[in-house]
Design goal:
388 residues; Cytochrome p450; 2 domains; two-stranded antiparallel ribbon; heme binding; Flavonoid 3'-monooxygenase; monooxygenase activity
Length: 388
């Protein structure tokens, strides 16, 4: 049976592209002192070596090629640092060179065309957004003003767990719920997803959690079109289609939130009380170096909710897993809580930095994010550099 004409054309196109790729690789000057790494294939590079758990694949490769290695993902060279010493070079010593982000389909379709801080390229907009976060949204005074929200939701969380005593508990589900409840009240100003949900949201808690799960998944997948741009339009894995569906869901929710805030802002007795209020005020500020558009407000809002929900829940889950894995650490933590706090009062935020012992990486502690990072964040070099 003869193959369809489009199949023949596609195979001829791929063969020609592979030949051209090989020819260009011969003409490309070979630079000295490049990191070692596996030999790439034409077109796909080393993508064939990356499995469904990329971090494990990279770890196995690092055991063979060393703490710093060079791979090729499709059309792009990728440098992987696999030790704390090498990571320090990228994230601290030369962080200004690697502060940007690669341009991906996820950044384009799920974050309002790179309008949030997570995927925005390094430049005036990113620097302005970082300043807004530090001085307007996350100042010490601002965070202290939200303590009552954290207390209410934390007590509701503990009450739910107490009611489930003696039963199997999927801790991540409860942690995700309490962090989402806290963050939504701080960012959006309403109890959209709290224990005392007011019913004012156009999506349920379960629907919104599914949206967040899809957001994290699509921002972490290895999308072939990002690495081989000339076949991106084919959307071979179907990820871009899913990104567009998710974008529309978030856009509907954000439009609902912003409209409620705008109506409230028009009232005569309006007082800014949440982070969306502050972002809308900044959007009206003519003195901003880069105008904060409506898409920018939506991108920042989504960043605040997503970034404050899953990473916090994941970090606490890892800490609890370390406690359960090492009973001696659990015993030590319990004894210390009994000694410092007692059993007749709640642990308060003011106790954390001064009264309680800070452990090392072997238990529940402030080092947990270092031992069990919540998520990877790829960096993109802005300038050509050589420092090793």
């Amino acid at each position: 049976m003869e193959a369809p004409s489009w199949v023949v054309l596609a195979l001829a196109w791929l063969a020609a592209a592979a030949l051209l790729s090989k020819l260009f690789s011969f003409r490309r000057p070979h630079k000295q002192n490049r990191p070692s790494g596996p030999k790439p294939w034409p077109i796909i590079g080393n993508l064939n070596l990356i499995g469904h758990l990329p971090h494990q694949s990279l770890h196995k490769l690092s055991q063979k090629y060393g703490q710093i290695m060079e791979l090729r993902f499709g059309s792009f060279p990728v440098v992987v640092a696999s030790s704390s010493e090498m990571a320090k070079q990228f994230l601290k010593t030369n962080d200004h060179l690697f502060a940007s982000r690669p341009q991906t389909a996820a950044g384009k379709y799920t974050t309002y065309n790179y309008s949030n801080i997570t995927w925005a390229p390094y430049g005036p907009y990113w620097r302005q957004g970082r300043k807004i976060y530090l001085t307007e949204l996350f100042s010490s005074k601002r965070l202290e003003s939200y303590e009552y929200i954290r207390v209410e939701e934390r007590q509701a969380f503990i009450s739910r767990l107490y009611a489930l005593s003696g039963k199997p508990v999927m801790l991540k589900d409860h942690l995700s719920r309490v962090t989402l409840s806290i963050i939504s009240r701080i960012v959006l100003g309403e109890k959209y997803f709290s224990e005392y949900q007011s019913g004012s949201s156009i999506v349920t808690l379960e629907e919104f959690q599914e949206m967040l799960d899809e957001l994290f998944l699509l921002n972490g997948v290895l999308n072939i079109g990002d690495w081989i741009p000339w076949i991106a339009f084919l959307d071979l894995q179907g990820y871009v289609k899913r990104m567009k569906v998710l974008r529309d869901k978030f856009d509907r929710f954000h439009d609902h939130v912003l409209e409620k805030h705008r109506v409230r802002r028009e009232a005569g007795d309006f007082v800014a009380k949440d982070m969306v209020d502050m972002l809308l005020r900044l959007a009206d500020d003519p003195d901003l170096q880069v105008k904060l558009t409506t898409d920018g407000v939506k991108g920042f809002t989504q960043d605040l909710i997503a970034g404050g929900t899953d990473t916090s829940a994941t970090t606490v889950e890892w800490a609890m897993s370390e406690i359960l894995r090492q009973p001696s650490i659990a015993k030590k933590a319990t004894e210390e809580l009994d000694r410092v706090i007692g059993r007749d009062r709640w642990v308060e935020e003011r106790h954390s930095p001064t009264s309680l012992h800070r452990c090392n990486c072997e238990g529940d502690n402030e080092a947990t994010p270092c031992c069990c990072p919540a998520c990877p964040s790829p960096g993109s070099s802005r300038l050509q550099c050589s420092w090793l």
